[in-house]
Design goal:
The protein is of the alpha/beta class and 302 residues long. The protein contains nine helices and 13 strands. 32% of the residues lie in helices and 24% in strands.
């Protein structure tokens, strides 16, 4: 069977409204004047992973549910402008959206509108099987339609990755994703014992690699039953915004993985891409390119 798609990205399409606030947490006040402006742009986790993969030269296709609304039009335009194939299934509840409050040091607080998703949301199974049959790998967002897609993806015989984001290691909603994926990304932000959670994922699921990102502290890599620390990469410019850093890490890691690089080298690619993403305001779209990734990673310590 022809594999015309390197990575099928499922879910995670939507729009964010970006607000640069004077500090986080934001003290209560009747109002704040935002001199830098309040801007709405397309780009949530699946969008950013797709952009990152495409910028690194991987053939990428994005599947998600979008509303017939102005927000959905922003998402469609983003993919069109970057030459990324997008299959949008109609979502009567509307396109997913969020508000991101960003502090001067680049930290973020995200407010997600959960009313745009329904328990009965599904990708049409014939469409899902068709796309899964033409790709090498699928990266799965932790949204409701993707949860129902996991059995079909596993039947297709392709490798899977997922990002659990700030999972606390306890919420049962995340477990089907954690235990079905071959590569699992997550953040250490809500974990009291990252190594214990990482080893539990590997023991109970099928993950060959588990990566826990830790912001400015770098990341932790569990591969071949060995836990190693991945040093942070030096950002090429001042840090202004952490939005999309984890998505950039995942995209660059997958670039290495699909090119048969060792997990340690994949993690180095991820750290490099994540650091670069922190230097780009989230109101702009500027994923790292392959030549820059390879050049900058060559000088990074393992």
């Amino acid at each position: 069977m022809s594999r015309d798609i390197d990575v099928l990205v499922l879910g995670g399409a939507g729009v964010d409204t970006i607000v640069y606030v004077p500090e986080l947490p934001l003290p209560y006040a009747d109002s704040y004047m935002i001199e830098s402006g309040i801007r709405t742009r397309a780009g949530q986790t699946g969008d950013f992973v797709a952009l990152g993969l495409a910028a690194l030269g991987l053939r990428t296709h994005h599947l998600d549910m979008l509303g017939d609304d102005p927000e959905g039009d922003l998402v469609r335009a983003l993919h069109h402008d970057h030459g990324i194939a997008l299959t949008a299934v109609s979502q009567p509840a509307g396109t997913k959206r969020a508000v991101n409050l960003v502090s001067p040091d680049g930290r973020r607080l995200s407010l997600y509108d959960s009313s745009r998703a329904r328990d009965q949301d599904r990708f049409p199974e014939p469409l899902l099987r068709e796309l899964a049959g033409t790709c090498r790998h699928a990266h799965v967002s932790i949204t409701q339609p993707c949860a129902h897609a996991l059995p079909v993806l596993r039947e297709a015989g392709i490798t899977l990755s997922t990002d659990l984001h700030n999972w606390d290691g306890e919420n049962p909603y995340h477990e089907p994703f954690a235990f079905a994926a071959d590569i699992v990304f997550l953040s250490t932000a809500a974990l009291t014992n990252p190594e214990r959670t990482m080893r539990r994922i590997a023991l109970r699921g099928r993950a060959e690699v588990v990566v826990a990102t830790a912001g400015a502290k770098g990341a932790y890599l569990l591969a071949d039953d060995e836990l190693t620390h991945v040093p942070p990469a030096t950002p090429p410019a001042p840090v202004v915004d952490s939005n999309g850093a984890g998505d950039a890490f995942a995209a660059a890691f997958l670039y290495g993985w699909l090119n048969r690089a060792a997990p340690q080298h994949c993690a180095r690619y991820g750290a490099t891409a994540g650091a670069q993403a922190c230097t780009v305001p989230s109101t702009r779209t500027q994923p790292i390119r392959r030549q820059e990734l390879l050049a900058r990673s060559a000088g990074s310590p393992l």
